[in-house]
Amino acid sequence: MLGLIMLALFVVCALFAPIITPYDAVEQNIDGLLIPPSWLANGSISHLFGTDALGRDLFTRIIYGCRITLGSAFITVVLAMLVGVSLGTFAGMLRGVRSSIVNHLLDALMAIPTLLIAIIIVAILGTGLVNSMWAITLALIPQFVHHTRSFVRAEMKKEYIVASKLDGASRWQLFAHSILPNMTEMLVVQGTLALSIAVIDISALGFLNLGAQSPLPELGVILADGLDVAYLAPWNVAVPGMAIFFMVLSINIVGDGLRSALRKRVSH
């Protein structure tokens, strides 16, 4: 329940960022540089999380950062899922040499961390938020292909699939009417895991100056911008770092809860 509440809070921040935030996310204020957060003795309630080295309101940037980071991660996961499920279903229905080739290719890709694949792709495409999203999408596709392929191969051996094939059902009919309805639970679980990976990778690429670029308020970029003044204003590093941590934690908790619920449902 706690993880769901945390994730819901991040989703609300992402959806209603323009309404929640009191300032412009990129507006600089030379009269308000490095103002401490409101809970410190010399802080200001007008800047809840303080300001950065350019006088930008950190609370506003964090809220918009949740919008950009979580929104970008969601889009990449949806795209990767659409492509990965399509390829995985096709691969799961293959037999013989073609199936063996797909197996070896997937094993090789699954052995490489998604962030490393994304960095290589960004090095080819160039920096920027959009390119980093494409890179992470391509990096996540093999995972969806692998899980979908394994699921489809297991389903194809079951009696109800064999009965449908004997009745003359085509591959498309088998997928649409028999396999896909049973695949939904697996996709929900794998989607939450991929979402946490996408959040980390987007933030990491932004932090490494390979993804989103300053002054765009992406959580990884905000964290990187705060490093230069971390010794003077540690909240510039602590706040975006904690935002990333709790965002990933909430997604993982929800994912674990979904897995447990689905496992109990299957056992009953």
Structure keywords:
268 residues; mainly alpha; MetI-like fold; MetI-like
Give an overview in words.
Keywords: Cell inner membrane, Cell membrane, Membrane, Transmembrane, Transmembrane helix, Transport. It is found in: Cell inner membrane; Cell membrane. One of its GO terms (biological process) is transmembrane transport. Belongs to the binding-protein-dependent transport system permease family. OppBC subfamily. The chain is mainly α. It has a single domain, classed as Orthogonal Bundle (MetI-like fold), CATH 1.10.3720. Helices cover 72% and strands 0% of the residues. Helix 5 crosses helix 6. The longest helix is centred in the C-terminal third of the chain and has 37 residues. The mean pLDDT is 88.
